[in-house]
Amino acid sequence: MLRAPAAESNKDVILEVLRRFATSGKRVFEIASGTGQHVAHFAKALEDVTFQPSEVNGRSLHSIVAYLDHNQFQNVRIPLFIDVAKRFNQWALPADFGPHMVDIVLSINMLHICSQTAVDGLFESADQLLNETTGKLITYGPYSEDGFISPQSNIAFHASLKNQDPEYGLKDIKYLERLANRSNLRLSEKIPVPKNNFILVFSR
Question: What superkingdom does the record give (predicted)?
């Protein structure tokens, strides 16, 4: 079971917002589930919600499985190998997590460390997965606003990401709004949270 300090520090903040939307009977599809810490934490707190984790990284997939084996959750599915940069029609999905059957698509700390194709893929796949009237895409992470990044720690973080890969870096909220609009979603909430991050809620 891998452990990321960032996941440990932000899991309660994200859960607090998730509780508002992930009510009894809802289905949550997590894209880029990482170590599995988040889904394990959320599943414990929201026992009447069904979670479908996914990952593209093999080591992370093994870690998620280890968390599930350790906790013996009844409300978490076996993680899927999902590359969000691939076209949605190439995904292998369980029958009850198919097109327009998902209530919430959740993406934590992904948008600033992935390719542009994956950014586009997140919004396009959310459009395909989410309930057509009530679905929500919830993302967490650092962002720029109107082309500006603050504070200095986020400026330095953005520069270091760009050095790793030109497609990495903090994405602008207005830009993400435009992507959302193309995918039949609108930015309904922008929630500031600790450590200069935001939770963005995109709704149908």
Answer: Eukaryota
Q: How large is the angle between the packed helices 37-45 and 58-71, nearest 10 degrees? A: 30
CATH number at residue 40: 3.40.50.150
Domain hosting 188: range is 5-203
Which H or E run includes 164? Answer: helix 152-164
Single-letter code of the amino acid located at 41: H
**pLDDT tens, the chain, 204 aa long:** 999 999 999 999 999 999 999 999 999 999 999 999 999 999 999 999 999 999 999 999 999 999 999 999 999 999 999 999 999 999 999 999 999 999 999 999 999 999 999 999 999 999 999 999 999 999 999 999 999 999 999 999 999 999 999 999 999 999 999 999 999 999 999 999 999 999 999 999
- Pair type for strands 197-203 and 186-193: antiparallel
CA neighbor of 113 nearest in space, from 77, 181, 60: 60
Residue 77: how many other CB atoms lie within 10 Å: 18
Model-wide pTM > 0.90: yes
Angle subtended at Cα 80 by Cα 75 and Cα 86, rounded to the nearest 5 degrees? 140
Say how many domains are in the chain. 1
